[in-house]
Amino acid sequence: MKSGSQLERMFAAGHFVLTGECGPPRGARAETVHEKAKLLKGCVDACNVTDNQTSVVRMSSMAGCLLLQQNGIEPTLQMVVRDRNRIALQSDILGAAAMGIGNMLCLSGDHQIFGDDPQAKNVFDIDSIQLIGLVKMMRDEGVFPSGKEIQGPPKMFIGAAVNPFADPYEIRVPRLELKVKAGVDFVQTQCIYNLEKFERYMEDLRKKGLHEKVYIMAGVTPLKSAGMAKFMKRMVAGMDIPDDVIARVAAEPKEKQADKGIEIAIETIQRVREIEGVAGVHLMAIEWEEKVAEITERAGLLPRPILD
Amino acid sequence: MIMGSAKPLDEILAMIEPYDRIILAGCNGCVTVCRAGGEKEVGIMASALRLARETAGRPLEIREITLERQCDPEYLEGVRPFISDYQALLSIACGAGVQFMAEKYPRTPLLPGINTAFIGVTERQGEWAERCQACGDCVLHLTGGICPVTRCSKSIFHGPCGGSSDGRCEVDKNILCGWQLIIDRLKSLNQMDNYLKLHDMKRWRASRDGGPRSIVREDLQE
Q1: Is B183 close to A171, i.e. CB distance below 8 A?
Q2: Which residue, A217, A243, B118, B180, shows the most beta carbons closer than 10 Å to its own?
Q3: Low-confidence residues of chain A: pLDDT under 70
Q4: Among A136, A56, A141, A152, residue whose Cα is nearest residue A99
Q5: How far apart are CA A172 and CA B112, in angstroms?
Q6: pLDDT for the residue numbered B209
Q7: φ and ψ at B159, to 5 degrees?
């Protein structure tokens, strides 16, 4: 075992794995995280805690992870390279491992221009792929990049994000290949609405045998409304929401659009589950944690398997 | 070349507020080419400042001069004969020129009249763009002659990130995605194998992060 986290053991046992996502609050209220944790408990095998997503300042991912742990949920620490140089990254990796956090997701981070502090200096000392290599080196070789020995290497199950829908498409599989080469253990995809394109992506990565080298989790986000879908399509780069998906939600009266969004999410889960090489689903119910139990139940993913 | 652009007139007027007699010094180097700090701009800026101060009822005496370069010591001697007759020197050279002038004339307050922006190129008449961040550790041979440090908004070494859309950067639709450019160029050079190489963590010490840099060539020293 690389970290022995529940997430890693679930994959190793061959289960179809389910992870959730929790965005920490814009404040210091621990109760907000506890409340979200109660909604996710028992529904997911592990839960990502985002790291100042969209460059908007929130409670730190590390603190959010510890609060989830207090509720008996295994956290996955999201870590962006936007705000930390390699010194801070190494230190946080050690700190997270010391606190029993066994999964992390290595990310670039949204550019600071999108947040409340567009005048901030960005760091990008290393990139997300170099971060994967850094954690792997610390874990497997027990040394810092300086070559000095680590007193107690961090046991981390290393994750990354992939976006099959960003441009240019031809580089999407090679870029996953780079992440695999750097040492990633699992990847979670951007929200999938364009299933045909996702199927093509999976087919292309299977040709390279990548599905046998890394656990691939399909990202699913239920749409709350046609308005949300249109907004995401327009505003989020690399977000591919086909017009027919938006039309299905828009065809419903306003009060029924959320139900349709959930129905589409469930269909998506069921469909990606059939694709060879998809090892699990990463369910990102953005500020909609109260629907996670319903979605996972109706998708046939509950109860979650219990490991020995 | 080093690119710059004029500071807003109000900002310059606030800077020179305490003074009645100043030197306005341009530079015939890079800032002349990018139309920010050459002889012509010295004339225009001097006229604007004089007019503004006359209107405000506090006339300003300006001595106009444009030096061959402000980054070489011998040319800076050009203001020595009269610098002590003035209260301050407003330089519209790049930041290096302003500072070098300040070093040479420790008793004269030095004021920057332009904002130094970047090392770049003339894309077309009236349009300049950044190409180099002088990071001190060039990798252009691996990236198709396109710099990831400069052209990617996140300076990442394994791109593009998820924010690349139709060849544009999510930061601004007017910015071309540096990594799309790199990939297009690698393909046309039949060098896509370079894309699948992992780059070691960058040695930023060669960049400004190691402190102010210098180059010493003993073979050229007397």
Answers
A1: yes
A2: A217
A3: none
A4: A152
A5: 47
A6: 87
A7: -110, -175
A130 near B CB under 8 A:
yes
Q: Which residue has the tokens 């290949």?
A: A177
Four-point Cα dihedral B7, B13, B16, B18, nearest 10: -150
Binning pLDDT at 50, 70 and 90, where does residue B222 land?
confident
Q: Specify the pLDDT at position A54.
A: 93
Query: How many Cβ atoms from other residues are within 10 Å of residue B194's Cβ?
Result: 14
B172 contact residues in A (CB cutoff 8 A): 113
Q: Which chain A residue has the Cα nearest residue B205?
A: A125
The answer to whether the CB atoms of A127 and B156 lie below 8 A apart is yes
HSE-CB at A207 with a 13 A cutoff on CA atoms is 7
Contact A206/A164 with Cβ under 8 angstroms? no
What is residue A308's predicted lDDT score, i.e. its pLDDT?
Answer: 80
CB A305 within 8 A of CB A225: no
Compute the average pLDDT of residues B152-156: 97
* Rounded Cα distance, B49 and B111, in Å: 14
**Using the beta-carbon criterion (under 8 Å), do B160 and A166 form an inter-chain contact?**
yes
**Complex ipTM value:** 0.93
Cβ-Cβ contacts under 8 Å between A and B: the total is: 90
Instruction: Give CA–CA dist B164/B156, Å, rounded.
Output: 13
Residue A145 pLDDT: 96
A130/A143 Cα distance (integer angstroms): 15
User: Residue B35 in contact with residue B4, Cβ under 8 Å?
Assistant: no
- Locate B29 and state its tokens: 């180097």
SS3 category, B120: strand
Structure tokens at A266: 């469930």
> What sign for the dihedral angle of Cα A30, A33, A38, A41?
negative
Contact A286, A221 (CB under 8 A): yes
* β-bridge mates for residue A280, sequence order: A17, A217
Residues ≥6 apart with Cβ < 8 Å to A138: A90, A93, A94, A144, A150, A153, A154, A156
Q: Are strands A186-191 and A75-80 parallel, antiparallel or unpaired?
A: unpaired
How close does chain A come to B102, measured CA to CA in Å? 28
Using CA atoms of B124, B128, B129, B132 in order, give the dihedral in degrees to the nearest 10. 110
- What are B21-74's pLDDT values in tens digits? 999 999 999 999 999 999 999 999 999 999 999 999 999 999 999 999 999 999
Q: How many CA atoms lie within 13 A of B83 on its CB side?
A: 19
